[in-house]
Amino acid sequence: MPQAHIESMDHEGRGVAHVDGKAIFIEGALPGELVEYASYRRKRSYEKAHAVSVLRSSSQRVAPPCPHFGNCGGCSMQHLNLAGQTAAKQRVLEDALWHIARLKPEQIFPPIAGTGWAYRMRARLSVRHVASKGGALIGFREKHSSYVAVMDSCAVLPGHVSALIPGLKTLVDGMSRPDRMPQIEVAVGGSRTVLLLRHLEPLTDDDLDRLRRFADANGIIWYLQSKGPETVILFHPADAGLLSYELPDFGLELLFHPTEFTQVNHGVNRMLVRRAMALLKPRAGERIADLFCGLGNFTLPIARMGARVLGVEGSAELVRRAQENAEHNGLEELCEFAVGNLFEATEESFAALGRLDKLMIDPPREGAIALVSALPAAGGPGRLVYVSCSPATLARDAAVLVHEKGYRLVGAGMANMFPHTSHLESIALFEK
Q: How far is 178 from 316, CA to CA, in rounded Å?
């Protein structure tokens, strides 16, 4: 069996080696290790493989605590300790900024990291009824497969949600069409837990009775979805209110519907908001724009610190929720919101926002290339804080900000929003 010395780690958490001049990307291998590997995909210039045995171990290697690791595709880095994961992701961020934008931050911010377990307050669990495997399977997909992993627990879900998995399997098995229920979404907020059942066939009265009994016995809230997102309805208990999460540093409670976007890791989100406000430094008398504002995750802390803030978001539903959250927290006098397609921003549409002292930007993975291209090269906001969930698009946009718009990259750092995965959240500060 071939052997390889692992030189580094790539952006997907795989060990990188070179054998006879060919790059080998090896799952389950860590930098500094000597491993035996088996390839599962061969191309002319590279191979993808998995580690079969570790002949010389890294000091950062740990025994994965989850019995499903290696089969379940939900996690890819449980064999690397949390400090090692943080360092690896920081290197991915720095490499992206240099190789894509030819930029080095003046300062590397301390990493933002929290607990590695029971952190995931949102999840989308696949459901499959497989008679040959004993009935319903509920969980994440297997690695490199569309099959659902066989699992009875999940260490990254909150403990009470993980404990529901066996009961949910029994519930699905007893339904009229267990083969037509492809998905259960999880959303946890405050003391409430929502399960959203996707069903492709109408539910019978017996099905509905089973769902009610499960909810009452386990203290959860059922939502149902029969077709597209517009068909999501609250089912039981019928008087259940919205979910919420808190930003205690700012005395805020943000309300949200189970289908609305929120960060999956509430603890790291609190630290990320705290860091963003420390970098942005909102002050009374300033007017700041929070672009891609969502339901107000950064907008309301900016207002709490005394600045006037304009939140812009493409979804009218999220804008309504952000306004509701401003009113819920007594900040409506300092907040204004607008619906706008920031992916089609122009110099004219940006100028129409009015005078802005600073910018807060938190785009989805696609980044904000149209927006940063629309900023004036002279004048304009003097400080910009950019939160990103894709180091590649952050680097692309940073190149425009620095090389074309007159900003400096003052600092950048990572936030480990999804421990044990290769997903990387980051935050960067730009100043004129």
A: 35
Catalytic residue among 72, 154, 293, 389: 389
pTM above 0.90, yes or no: yes
Please give the order of strands across the beta sheet that includes 383-388.
107-108, 408-415, 425-431, 383-388, 358-361, 287-291, 308-313, 335-339
User: What are 255-307's pLDDT values in tens digits?
Assistant: 999 999 999 999 999 999 999 999 999 999 999 999 999 999 999 999 999 99
User: How confident is the prediction for the chain on average, in pLDDT?
Assistant: 97
Token pair belonging to 75:
């996690």
- DSSP classification of residue 217: H
- Separation between Cα atoms, residue 288 and residue 277, nearest integer Å: 12
Distance CA 415, CA 295 (A): 20
74 vs 370: CA distance, rounded Å? 33
pLDDT range class, residue 108, cuts 50, 70, 90: very high
Angle of helix 82-101 relative to helix 391-403, nearest 10 degrees? Answer: 40
Active site residue 389: yes
Kindly list the structural domains of the chain, giving each domain's residue range(s) and its CATH number in brackets, ordered by start. 1-61 (2.40.50.140), 89-115+265-431 (3.40.50.150), 122-243 (2.40.50.1070)
